[in-house]
Amino acid sequence: MPTTSSRLPAGSLLLCSLVFAAVLVGCSKPEPASERRGGIQSRPVIAAEISYSPEQVNVEAVGTSRALRSVSIRPRVAGQVESVKVEPGQKVSEGEVLFSLDSRDEALALRNAEVELEDAERLLRRYRQTGDSGAVTQSALDDAESAVARARIAVDRARVNLDYQQVKAPFTGYVGLTDIDPGAWVDTSTTLTTLDDRSTLLVTFPLPELLLGQIAIGETIELSAWRKQALVAEGRVVEIDSRVDASERTFLVRAHVDNSEDKLRPGMSFRIALTLTGNDFALIPELSLQWGPRGSFVWAVIDGVAERRVATIVQRRAGQVLVDLDLPEGALVVLEGIQMVREGMPVSVAQVVNVAGMPARTEPEVSGD
């Protein structure tokens, strides 16, 4: 039987050769120079530009307030109350009379002392007028001068005793409640009322001993009351205790709080909030922080290459992390595309964002021809 030839036509062989050559040329197309480095393809990533920020310690405490100046008013002498000059809650000025005691005896004593002073001064004048005649000895003249001096002291003492019958405000402030009525007998142990200068409150609060040295005079604090619509005020640290309570492991801090609007009252307790600042550390986005067998780290972009850098967490913030990182401010760390990054891998930064996540600057990729 005649055999059938299996050879293809010459035209078909030529067409197959051309198709195969085109496939080879397409497969061997060179990659752009920007996407290759040392024969390894670079990975496009989005990086974050780190900044340095101080460590912040938010502290809360409970403080108790008192008026800047607060006293219990007591009389200097015993006696019967003649009149009450003030009402509870009244604002009085320094030196204003609050209570009057029966002062008739003291007024008579003062008048008597003034009469004795007049007699002593009159006698001294006579002795001096006759001093040249020799009728008065020098000793008698000296006695007369001493008598005048003693009489003046007696007058001053009588005036003081008379003044003690008037109970006066030692400073400007607000009068508290009183149970004293006219006619009541009082002595030096009787509390007539209280007086508070509440234009400024002195708030005392404890802090843990580990914060000793981190808070300083002049530090600003924020206070709020405990009710639903809390009053908020600011204070300034004015005193720090010189010792630590051995049982509580705390130390006391005092702050001045302006109360010129008179909304706060002595004795109120407050929620204290203050922010203490420490050393500066690198601030990075939380998404840039990775974990490995040796702890936390970030991928740093150094001269277009990814490098693993140890990043020890110092403090977490909303969407950000404060870390101890050996990189200068402005250095770049990988933010997106982290999963494909490896040590020493070339990376191309498509975009740079700041720590807050907003674009800081854009670096366009370099494409080949």
From TrEMBL:
Location of the CzcB-like barrel-sandwich hybrid domain: 70-196
Recorded coiled-coil stretches: 103-161
UniProt keywords, alphabetically: Coiled coil, Signal
UniProt keyword Chloroplast, yes or no: no
Entry superkingdom: Bacteria
Pfam families: Beta-barrel_RND_2, BSH_CzcB
SUPFAM superfamilies for this protein: HlyD-like secretion proteins (SSF111369)
Gene3D superfamilies: 2.40.30.170, 2.40.420.20, 2.40.50.100, Helix hairpin bin
Transmembrane segments: none
Keyword Signal among record annotations: yes
Signal peptide start and end residues: 1-21
Domain CusB-like beta-barrel: 205-275
Family, per entry: Belongs to the membrane fusion protein (MFP) (TC 8.A.1) family.
Entry-linked NCBIfam families: RND_mfp
Entries under PANTHER family matching the protein: BLL4320 PROTEIN (PTHR30469:SF11), MULTIDRUG RESISTANCE PROTEIN MDTA (PTHR30469)
Protein name, as recorded: Efflux RND transporter periplasmic adaptor subunit
